[in-house]
Structures are given as structure tokens and as C-alpha cells.
Design goal:
The complex is a heterodimer of chains A (about 300) and B (about 400). By secondary structure, chain A is mainly alpha-helical. Chain A has helices at about 1-30, 45-50, 60-70, 85-120, 125-140, 145-155, 175-200, 200-210, 215-245, 245-250, 255-265, 270-300. Chain A contains twelve helices and no strands. The two termini of chain A are about 20 Å apart. Residues about 305-310 of chain A have low confidence and may be disordered. Chain B has about 400 residues and is α+β, with helices and mostly antiparallel strands. Chain B has helices at about 1-10, 20, 35-45, 45-65, 65-70, 145-150, 190-225, 225-240, 245-255, 260-270, 275-285, 290-300, 305-315, 315-340, 350-360, 365-395; strands at about 85-90, 95-100, 105-110, 115-120, 120-125, 130-135, 140-145, 160, 165, 170-175. In chain B, a hairpin with a 5-residue loop joins strand 2 (about 95-100) and strand 3 (about 105-110). The chains are: A mainly alpha (about 300), B alpha+beta (about 400).
């Protein structure tokens, strides 16, 4: 058991190492340095900047310094936002992203799963069709469309819903809807099909035959087993939602790391791009790892260390 | 002997059939191949057929549509900027109608809704909200105070021409010159959306093809080789899979730094093949134990031939299903990239770029956002329906007898 966790952690660290290395050399391969401006800087200033940021060192030395920085959670300075480090930017942006992501995940769990269950219990009734049509639309409409439609039809017409920023609790609704739309619909569909599958099993018939109340049959016997595939999807999804909010943060002007990332891409601020990529990847890998470990604790059918897909 | 027996049993009401005709009684039905069988089942799936029709229509829209359009995607007409698809017209003369755009340009139109010209603005009285325009030497006064009032009493603007004031629009007409309106440079939206379809679909199809080639080759080699090679190849896939790929697409786009069509295709094509590789490997692992592969091996067929002649054709079903699902997600990713400013460069535009351009003027010109958004959503919907249908048609486990 412990061996399995160790193995997973080591392989996660290894992945992270590869990501950092890859990103570092990819960034160094770009033509044009970080100080290339439309109006060229005097050579003396470039020389000084290069000296300040240790860009005169051989690439391999820079690489080791960078890796040392990552190991000590120091992602280096920003080249464009003078005086700020990548760590500062992450510290500024992360709370916003986390809050919106959290609300979105809550939306998915609180609406997606119950809708799927209702849909399965009322299979082929009107409500099932309505839910499934909505879910299909939700899977096919991109988040930026959802976000802009929300602004156009709702928040710009109702004066007490703020359009941008996160100034009051109502402001979370729009970003959370846009961010959760796809996953919410997907979870609803997944829950429905998994629930339908479980309801056909013999042990459900047995439970009913034994005279258990419908509430207990559904709540205790069916739901527990139907949730397993849903959890498998929800785990990586949480990570993806926390790391995939660039567009939504941009449209709703939320101070989040997604927005800083897009800005750094547009500014060609290389250290920030590398730093944020490593940070995002680390977050993603850690989340998937945590979910995997948690999952192996919940589902007794999973044999540790053996892959079900093979 | 037999002949005689038959003769004896002959009943005058019946007569013997010639032996050549006898053969016809045995019904010969051609056996259905895998693909014919799948097509038969696909045809019975109404939703899948809707999806197929949608896919064909969208492709035709993008491929043939621009030929019928009088405009090109880059044609600008600075007289007619930001003209919506429908507008209210006010009668001024016998056959003259005007329409006030959101930018307070007065556009001369005819009764059918064809745009004729932009009238020259001669005077702007910004305090009283009255603008004056020139029409054939006479003045037209447009008073738009009411538009800015909370309670306008049902009156939007007042148009005065030769001392006749119209308070209510004569009627609402559809834009005949630009059916889907124009953008902020006076370019025809319909044409731009059609060209956008070309770009979005080209990116999606070619990127999927690249993914397909890389993924199928990688997966088939990994599955067929087995052992250490398979281990190493699959560990690398695991590593790639644990990276948030959107970040890498963005990084690659920044590094290549040439915002052409091919950059996006190469980037998308080189990143999203992992799922396909896994799928093909899984299929190959099962297929390579079959007797026909063993037979091919014993007669010394090369591995490349075994893969291309035996393994891939037999794994085609799942590959096609996964491909139909890859196309919409490529459209999606491309739209997403264009939307954060990493798409094709102007004046070309994909649906994502069009949506991004429309974002700034959303509250005034919402139609500019709706058209590309609906196009994206319809494409996704059609491919998803078709993919679901193909999945149930090609998967033998879902067969219902």
C-alpha cells in the first residue's frame, strides 16, 4: 500500500521534472530575448539586464539554477512586470482562481449529479428528455460563448448582478456557470447512464424484494455503486477546472492566474510563462494524485498497483 | 428409375418444374459486410442521420458557400459598418427610407431593405441630441433624445424631413445587402462566417488527420512490439497525459510565433494523439493473438505489413469513432486559442477569432457574436450526434441482434 503511494509520488515528481526541463529548453529556443522591444534598448542596458538576470551564464548553468529555484519553490523574477517575481504573481492570482474554481466544482456536484439521478429515475419521461437536451447543449457550447451570453442576457440587464470582478457573492454565478457548463452536462450524462446500469442489477431487485423503501434502495444501494465512474471523471476534472479558466477569467476580468498567464503569453514574458506552466502542471499532477489515492481508499474493487485498462 | 417413379406419381393438376428453375427457389442473399451492417444500423438512428446531415451542410457551407457570395472575407465598405441583420426604417420621401445605425450614421435604404448609401452628417447638436444629415440638398433632422430616456413613451427617434416628422418606424426590414449584417469594418458577416468555417474545419480535419497518423502508428508499434519497447512507449504516454495539454499548445504557439494556419494545425496535431495511441494499442493487444496474425508471421510478413494489412483494418471501427469525436474537440480548441488571441492572423478569421472580435461590442452589436457562436455550437452538436451514432453502429457489443 505504502509502496504504491511512494511509486505514484516518485513518478509524479519525475513528470514534473520532465515538464520543467522541457519548458525551460523550449523557452530558450525562442528567437528574440526577453528584452526585445519595438524601440531597441541601448546595448549597455541590455548587458546590464543580462548580468542582473544571469543570462550571460552558459545555458546549462542557467538550467541548474532554474531547477534549484523550482526545488525551493522560487520561480524567478518577471522580466516585464519589473520588481515582481513569478511567485508574487501567483500569490496575487491564485486566490481568485481558487474561489471561482471552487464554486464551479460545487455547481457541478450539486446540480450535475442530482440532475443525472432524476433523469435516470424518470427515464424516457419529459423531465429526462429536458435534462438530456440541456446536457447535450451544455457539452457543445464553448465556455466563452456561455460567458458572453450570460453577460449579454443576464448581468448587463439586471443591475444588482455585477458584470465583472468578484466584488460580491452574486458575481460568482456567471464565471461559475461558464466554467462548469461542460463538466456539469458531462457529469449529468455520466451519472444518468451509470445509474441506469446499476438499477438493472440483481442486487437492486433483491433490495426491493426484501421490502426496502425506495429511498433506501436508491440512496444506499444504487447511488453508492453508480457514483464510482462519476468520481473517476470528477477527480481530473477538478484539476482541469482549476487550471483551465483562462478565458473565463479574461471575460469576467477576474484577477486570477489564468488571466496573468494569458497576459504573459501576449507580453512574451518568458519567466512568467515557464513559471506558470510549471505551477499549473504541478497543481494538476498533485490533484490527480490526490484523487487517485482517495479513490483507491473508497473503492475496494481497485487493486492497488494494477491498472484496470490493460 | 427415378424418372419412372415421378411419372407414376404425376397428378394432372401439377407439372414438374425444370431443374434449372428449381435453383431459383433457394434465396441467395449476399452476406452483409461489417461496413454494410454498420451503415444499415446507422441509417436507423435518426439522431445520427441528423448529425450526418448537419456535418454535410456545414462542409458545403464552408466549401461552396463563398462562391455564391458577392463579397470576399476582406472586402470592406466603410459606409456600412456595424449594420445589423434587421433594422427599423423611417419613410422620408416617396421611395426613400432611412435607418439610424447604432453609431448614429444615417443609412439610406429602400423599402426592401437594400442599403443604398450613407448620408453625410452636416451638423451635430450633441446637447439637444439632434443630428442633421444631408439628403439631395435637403436636411434630415434626427432627434434621438428619447432613445436615451428611461421612459420614452414608445418613441425611439424622431425623423424630420421637409417639415414632416415621423415618430414611429414605417416597418422593420431584413438587411438584403448583408443578410447577417456587417462587422466594425463593414465586412459581410455571412461571408466571414463561411470563410471561418473553411478555416475552422481545415484546422480540425488536418489536425485530426495528423493525430490519427501519429497516434495509430505509435499505438500499433507499441502494442505489436510489447515488452520493454511497449513499457517505455506507454510510460512516455503516461507522462504526456499528466501534463495539462492546453498549456503546451499555448507554449508551442508562442514559440513558433508565426500565426498562420499551419502553426495551429501542427500544434494541435502534435499534442492530442495520446488518446488515439492508447486506444489503438489496446485494440492491437487483442488482435495480435489472432490466428491470422500468427499465420502472417509464419510466412514471414514484415511487421509494417502486419500492422497496415491486418491490425489497423480490423481496429478501424473504434478508430473512426474516436476520430469523429476528435474533430469537434479540435474545432473547440482552435476556437479557444483564437479567442485568447493566438489564432490565424487578420484579415483571415476563424469562428473563434470572429467571436473574440465581437466581444468588445457585445452590448451594442450582439449579432456579431451570435453568428459564430451558433456556428461553433451547431458543428459540435452535429459531430457529437454522428459520433454517438457511429459508436453504437460500429461497436459489436452494442448490437441488438
Amino acid at each position: 500500500m505504502i509502496g504504491y503511494y511512494l511509486k505514484r509520488i516518485v513518478s509524479a515528481l519525475f513528470t514534473l521534472f520532465i515538464i520543467a526541463t522541457l519548458t525551460f529548453f523550449m523557452m530558450r529556443a525562442i528567437p528574440g530575448g526577453p528584452f526585445t522591444r519595438e524601440k531597441p534598448l541601448p546595448p549597455q542596458i541590455i548587458a546590464q539586464l543580462n548580468a542582473k538576470y544571469n543570462l550571460d551564464d552558459p545555458v546549462i548553468v542557467q538550467y541548474f539554477n532554474y531547477m534549484k529555484g523550482i526545488a525551493t519553490f522560487d520561480l524567478g523574477p518577471s522580466f516585464k512586470e519589473l520588481g515582481l517575481t513569478v511567485n508574487d504573481l501567483i500569490r496575487q492570482g491564485f486566490p481568485g482562481s481558487m474561489k471561482v474554481g471552487f464554486v464551479a466544482v460545487m455547481f457541478i456536484i450539486l446540480f450535475g449529479i442530482p440532475l443525472g439521478i432524476i433523469s435516470a429515475l424518470k427515464q424516457n419521461k419529459a423531465i429526462d428528455h429536458v435534462v438530456m437536451v440541456m446536457a447535450t447543449i451544455g457539452v457543445t457550447v464553448p465556455s466563452f460563448v456561455v460567458a458572453t451570453l450570460y453577460i449579454y442576457f443576464i448581468s448587463s440587464r439586471i443591475s444588482w448582478i455585477p458584470i465583472t470582478g468578484l466584488s460580491n457573492p452574486l458575481a460568482y454565478i456567471g464565471p461559475a456557470i461558464a466554467l462548469s457548463g461542460y463538466s456539469l452536462s458531462y457529469v449529468a450524462r455520466l451519472t444518468r447512464s451509470s445509474m441506469l446500469e446499476v438499477l438493472r442489477q440483481d442486487y437492486i431487485r433483491t433490495a426491493r424484494a426484501n421490502g426496502l423503501s425506495e429511498f433506501r434502495v436508491i440512496g444506499k444501494h444504487a447511488l453508492k455503486n453508480a457514483m464510482i465512474p462519476v468520481i473517476t471523471y470528477v477527480g481530473p476534472m477538478i484539476a482541469a477546472i482549476l487550471t483551465g479558466s483562462f478565458v473565463v477569467e479574461r471575460i469576467f476580468s477576474i484577477n486570477g492566474i489564468g488571466r496573468y498567464f494569458v497576459e504573459s503569453v501576449n507580453n512574451r514574458d518568458y519567466t512568467v510563462i515557464i513559471g506558470m506552466t510549471v505551477f499549473y502542471s504541478a497543481l494538476y499532477i498533485v490533484m490527480v494524485l490526490l484523487v487517485d489515492i482517495g479513490y483507491s481508499l473508497i473503492d475496494p474493487r481497485i487493486k492497488l498497483g494494477r491498472k484496470s485498462g490493460d | 428409375m427415378a424418372e419412372r417413379v415421378v411419372t407414376r406419381m404425376r397428378n394432372p393438376d401439377f407439372e414438374l418444374v425444370e431443374s434449372s428453375k428449381k435453383m431459383n427457389k433457394e434465396q441467395t442473399r449476399r452476406s452483409l459486410t461489417y461496413w454494410k451492417d454498420a451503415w444499415r444500423r446507422l441509417k436507423n438512428n435518426r439522431l445520427a442521420m441528423v448529425g450526418l446531415a448537419g456535418v454535410i451542410l456545414i462542409i458545403l457551407f464552408g466549401v461552396i458557400g463563398p462562391w455564391f457570395s458577392p463579397y470576399s472575407y476582406s472586402d470592406q465598405d466603410n459606409r456600412f459598418t456595424n449594420i445589423p441583420p434587421r433594422f427599423e426604417i423611417y419613410a422620408i420621401a416617396d421611395d426613400g427610407y432611412v435607418f439610424l445605425s447604432s453609431q448614429y450614421n444615417l443609412i439610406l435604404v429602400n423599402e426592401k431593405g437594400e442599403l443604398l448609401d450613407k448620408l453625410v452628417r452636416t451638423n451635430m447638436d450633441a446637447i439637444n441630441k439632434i443630428y442633421t444629415y444631408d439628403y439631395e440638398g435637403e436636411e434630415i433632422e434626427v432627434d434621438f433624445k428619447n432613445r436615451l430616456l428611461e421612459d420614452d413613451g414608445g418613441v425611439d427617434i424622431k425623423v424630420t424631413y421637409k417639415n414632416v416628422t415621423s415618430i414611429y418606424p414605417t416597418k422593420t426590414v431584413s438587411n438584403k445587402t448583408f443578410p447577417w449584417g456587417t462587422d466594425n469594418l463593414g465586412r459581410d458577416m455571412l461571408t466571414r462566417i463561411m470563410f471561418g468555417a473553411r478555416i475552422s474545419l481545415t484546422v480540425a480535419f488536418v489536425a485530426t488527420l495528423v493525430n490519427l497518423i501519429i497516434g495509430v502508428t505509435y499505438g500499433a508499434i507499441s502494442g505489436l512490439e510489447g515488452g520493454t519497447a511497449d513499457d517505455i512507449m506507454m510510460r512516455s504516454v503516461d507522462v504526456i497525459n499528466s501534463i495539462p495539454l492546453v498549456l503546451y499548445v499555448i507554449l508551442l504557439m508562442v514559440i513558433i510565433d508565426d500565426q498562420g494556419l499551419w502553426t495551429i494545425i501542427i500544434t494541435l496535431g502534435s499534442v492530442y494523439w495520446v488518446g488515439m495511441a492508447r486506444l489503438v494499442r489496446g485494440q492491437v493487444l487483442g488482435l495480435k493473438e489472432q490466428e491470422y496474425v500468427l499465420a502472417a508471421r509464419t510466412i514471414g510478413v514484415s511487421k509494417a505489413k502486419i500492422i497496415s494489412k491486418h491490425l489497423i483494418p480490423n481496429a478501424m471501427g473504434p478508430i473512426i469513432v474516436s476520430m469523429t469525436m476528435m474533430i469537434p474537440s479540435a474545432v473547440f480548441t482552435e476556437a479557444f486559442l483564437s479567442f485568447i488571441g493566438l489564432g490565424v492572423s487578420a484579415p483571415m478569421a476563424s469562428w473563434g477569432t470572429l467571436a473574440n472580435d465581437a466581444l468588445a461590442g457585445l452590448s451594442t452589436y450582439p449579432y456579431q457574436l451570435f453568428a459564430p457562436s451558433i456556428a461553433i455550437a451547431l458543428t459540435m452538436l452535429s459531430f457529437n450526434f454522428l459520433g454517438d451514432g457511429l459508436r453504437s453502429a460500429l461497436d459489436p457489443r452494442l448490437r441488438k441482434g
